[in-house]
Amino acid sequence: MKTIIVPIDFSEQSENALKVAASLAKKHGSEIIALHMLELNEAMISSSEGFHPEQTVFLIKMAEKRINEFLDKPYLEGVKNVTPIIKHFKVFSEVNDVAEKHGADMIIMGSHGSDGLKEIFVGSNAEKVVRNSEIPVLVIKDEMEDFKAENFVFACAFKDESLAAFKKAQEFADKLSAKLHLVYINTPGDNFLSTQDAYEKVNKYLQKAGAGKEVNVYNDYSVEKGVLNFSESIQADVIGIPTHGRKGLSHFFMGSIGEDITNHSKIPVITFKIYF
117, 146, 155, 177: least CB-packed within 10 angstroms? Predict the structure, then answer.
């Protein structure tokens, strides 16, 4: 894991993400890129409509000062390299552009905790980054000084479209020396499969993936509840889910299951892009 990107907006959530990035960077000798996006507009850059270039320069200088102060933290000591990057516009596809330019392995984002009342992941900065990112995005809910991923749950519908995401999840587990727990959630209704049918479906998928992994078939009333309950039952440290990129998380499995899992999970969630 060479490079980790952390979008910074100076909030408590972005500091939580930075702490996890620092923990991983120290273990893996990674570089951290701290990315801040200013909310300038074209008028401010082109000095039209009464804006003066010195105003824009002042705002950029202030942002540079603020990000350097934000990065002056004891928990970043021992990290190989921390590089601040400031972008002029708040365009979430730019996070992916920076990731590609620097060959980043992962983006780590902070998000609000899960009290069941704040359905804040949908429409949040974290969701916009997930939607635009070609690389895995780790969404952190709470402060954690020492991030560990001993037990990593990967949940999907075991359809061919998610094979690339599954392989990325395997790579993530290998890098972090995590135990990968694959789970298929069996729910009542039209999608219900007998235990035998469920295992047959999963085994066909694993043959295509070239993976000889053990899979858990877990029955629950909804996919979201199943993923969260199974994860809690094995004391998982992180949950992995495939995403459809620009369509957002709402097309994971069906309905808004990916959003619900990311909203209500008490532990970090990592997303892996599905390619068509």
Answer: 117
For the chain, what are the domain ranges? Answer: 1-143, 148-276
CB atoms within 10 A of CB 180: 20
3's tokens? 């490079």
| Inter-residue contact 188 to 166 (CB < 8 Å) | no
Partnered with residue 269 across adjacent β-strands are: 139, 239
By the 10 Å C-beta count (0-12 exposed, 13-18 middle, 19+ buried), 233 is classed as exposed
Task: Tell me how crowded residue 45 is: count the other CB atoms within 10 A of its CB.
Answer: 13
CB 119 within 8 A of CB 158: no
Token digits of residue 158: 């075991």
Burial of 46 (0-12, 13-18, 19+ CB in 10 A): exposed
> Which single residue is written with the structure tokens 């979201």?
224
Give pLDDT tens digits for 131-169.
778 899 999 988 887 888 899 999 988 988 889 899 999
CATH for 1-143 is 3.40.50.620
CATH code for the domain defined by 148-276:
3.40.50.620
Q: Contact 149/169 with Cβ under 8 angstroms?
A: no
Of 195, 187, 175, 173, residue with least CA distance to 229? 187
**Rg of the chain's alpha carbons, rounded to an integer?**
20
Query: Crossing angle of helices 125-132/93-101, nearest 10°?
Result: 50
The DSSP secondary-structure symbol of 160 reads G
pLDDT confidence of residue 4: 96
- pTM value is 0.88
- Summarised one tens digit per residue, pLDDT across range 32-83 is 999 998 876 655 555 555 556 777 788 889 989 999 999 999 999 999 999 9
User: According to the model, what pLDDT value does residue 121 have?
Assistant: 56
